[in-house]
Amino acid sequence: MSTPTLILASTSPFRRELLSRLGLPFVAANPRVDETSQEGEVPEMLALRLAEAKARAVADAYPHALIIGSNQVACLDGRLFGKPETHENAIHQLRAMRGRRVNFFTALCLLNAEANRVHLRGVPTQVTFRDLSDQEIERYLRTEQPYNCAGSAKSEGLGIALIARIDGEDPNALIGLPLIALCEFLRLESIPVP
29-88: per-residue pLDDT in tens? Predict the structure, then answer.
């Protein structure tokens, strides 16, 4: 029996870099999933639904593979902060989050496409942002341009300077791929790590 192909259903360079740390061969595929939340959907359920949807979106192309899907949302006072997409939206997000504790929820799905077996977990991370000045926000956004990141900050880059504290079970989850949970899921599918 051959080892199934490992597919990362993501175009994120940060998720690719994180997955490469495990030393396993994989292929990245674009899942092309609408990330719009459904009416009444809480952030945690949105992240879980989208992580699985991303994995399933590439399953037809890789019917014998193990497919990894991941999605992250940020939430403050019940308000969802997704990818800002624009400079103006990022300014609004960071102004709202300055001096506050923000909940980031990173969902992970490992889909065994052949067996239609799903492993799904959400990994919460709490991030306390510094009380940022408007000038710091502007300087950061002009430098790093994190417009494709939930919460408008890249903790793996210069965004770490915006943060006062991070609390969570897996530091990789905040970057976008919970490797601790992923290693557990891979072992459940008989993929040895390391």
Answer: 999 999 888 888 888 999 999 999 999 999 999 999 999 999 999 999 988 888 899 999
Q: What is the average pLDDT score of the chain?
A: 94
Tell me which residue has tokens 């597919």: 7
What lies within 8 Å, CB to CB, of 150 at 6+ separation is 72, 73, 74, 81, 82, 83, 104
Instruction: Give the list of residues 6+ apart from residue 114 with CB closer than 8 angstroms, or none.
Output: 4, 63, 64, 65
CA contacts within 13 A on the Cβ side of 102: 30
Separation CA 87–CA 93 (nearest Å): 10
